């Protein structure tokens, strides 16, 4: 856990971390807002009751999975197909969790469960940027929790807005507002491309996701993710071997 500044109550330090997390995710919240409105609008014009859409945002809290599930429900897909498809789409969260695990492993189970429930693409980007510069096991959950809770409340707010006012703008989903989410993902990915292995992994995953986009149940996306991870891991191993060889050569001089 982080230690409070001398003379400062621990609760005050926790509040500052919580506030910092909520503040740092504001740009991501702006990008998610049109996405939430469009989701609410689609629910209002689809086969579900309004409260079904809000319940989905409250319980699922995963924009891409919610959009896919909504489309499958409208197409009268079976429960098994809806469950399997959304599972595949959200498997990327396993990678997010594995990345953040060393930084939250020391936390009590109640905190790990709460943070896991609030984990989204945007929350991962903000939390990882915060954790990556710190030693694993030395940071508490409050920054992560602040970012996650702020994004959660933001998603609920804009879902409600879409549900209540989307019917007044029937062509809203065709205005291209969903590009805001694309821009958000670009903002998430680009700052991470600080080394060749990251760039190669991103290019591989992006190219294959485009080529494999016609695969059923979004399996192309999953395959592209695994291919990108494989490329990144192989390049990381190669760079590690090269560093080891250089150190060995320097020691032998």
UniProtKB/TrEMBL annotation:
The UniProt record lists the keyword Repressor: no
Annotated transmembrane regions: 25-46, 58-91, 143-165, 171-190, 195-213, 219-237
Organism expressing this protein natively: Paraburkholderia lacunae
InterPro entries in alphabetical order: Brnchd-chn_aa_trnsp_permease
Family, per entry: Belongs to the AzlC family.
Lineage top rank: taxon: Bacteria
Lineage: Bacteria, Pseudomonadati, Pseudomonadota, Betaproteobacteria, Burkholderiales
This protein's name: Branched-chain amino acid ABC transporter permease
Coiled-coil ranges per UniProt: none
Subcellular location: Cell membrane
Cellular component annotations (GO), alphabetically ordered: plasma membrane
BP terms from Gene Ontology: L-valine transmembrane transport
Presence of keyword Iron-sulfur: no
Keywords, ordered alphabetically: Cell membrane, Membrane, Transmembrane, Transmembrane helix, Transport
Main location: membrane
Membrane topology, record value: Multi-pass membrane protein
């Amino acid at each position: 856990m982080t230690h409070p500044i001398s003379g400062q109550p621990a609760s005050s330090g926790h509040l500052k971390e919580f506030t910092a997390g909520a503040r740092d995710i504001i740009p991501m919240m702006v990008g998610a807002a049109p996405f939430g409105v469009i989701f609410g609008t689609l629910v209002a014009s689809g086969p579900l009751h309004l409260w079904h859409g809000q319940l989905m945002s409250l319980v699922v809290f995963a924009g891409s999975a919610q959009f896919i599930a909504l489309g499958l429900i409208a197409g009268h897909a079976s429960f098994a197909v809806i469950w399997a498809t959304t599972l595949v789409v959200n498997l990327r969260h396993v990678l997010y969790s594995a990345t953040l695990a060393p930084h939250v492993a020391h936390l009590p189970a109640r905190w790990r469960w709460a943070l896991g429930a609030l984990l989204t693409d945007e929350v991962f980007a903000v939390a990882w940027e915060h954790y990556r510069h710190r030693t694993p096991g030395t940071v508490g959950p409050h920054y992560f929790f602040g970012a996650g809770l702020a994004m959660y409340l933001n998603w609920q707010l804009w879902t409600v807005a879409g549900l209540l006012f989307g019917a007044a703008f029937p062509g809203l989903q065709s205005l291209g507002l969903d590009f805001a989410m694309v821009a958000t993902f670009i903002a998430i990915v680009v700052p991470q491309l600080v080394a060749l292995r990251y760039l190669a992994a991103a290019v591989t995953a992006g190219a294959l996701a485009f080529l494999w986009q016609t695969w059923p149940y979004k399996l192309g996306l999953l395959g592209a993710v695994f291919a990108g991870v494989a490329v990144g891991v192989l390049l990381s191993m190669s760079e590690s071997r090269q560093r080891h060889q250089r150190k060995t050569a320097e020691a032998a001089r």
